[in-house]
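SEQUENCE-TO-STRUCTURE ENTRY
===========================

Backbone structure tokens: a row of integers, each naming the local backbone shape at its residue.

Task: work out the structure tokens from the sequence, keeping to the layout shown below.
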Amino acid sequence: MTTQAVATSWFTVVRRYLLAAGVGNLVWEFGQMPLYTLWQSGTRREIILAALHCAAGDLGIAAGALALGLALAAAPGWPEVRFIPALLAATAFGAGYTVYSEHLNVVVRRAWAYTPAMPVLPGLGTGVAPLLQWLLVPPLALLWARGRGAASINR
């Protein structure tokens, strides 16, 4: 692969990842909204703005988590080289930040609250749905963005 082809390859994967992560997180935010008290107490406008705001924040977190994952676990030639370690690192950063942020905003600051339907992690009070979001949406978005068969992602 030429230097130009490698540069195009990683750039294309990152662009596709951001698109897929943005759409995936937007869908997830609207889907999990009934697990937050805003669903019951907010106006339609407040609910829509909250979901859009959260999805925009999710996109920033996804971009930052990917940047950290690439910096720490990727290698020249990514995504053809060390794709899985970078994916796992980015997923860990996103999930770790989510556990921290949800605990901070739900338990400490009380900036938002869950309904009784939200399962929570014992001892932390972090919602399971937001954690699952970060364990599923970004990795699936990155796998889709790479656009290769499962046999080639094991490098």
Observations:
- Residues 149-155 have pLDDT under 50 and may be disordered.
- The chain has one domain: 3-147.
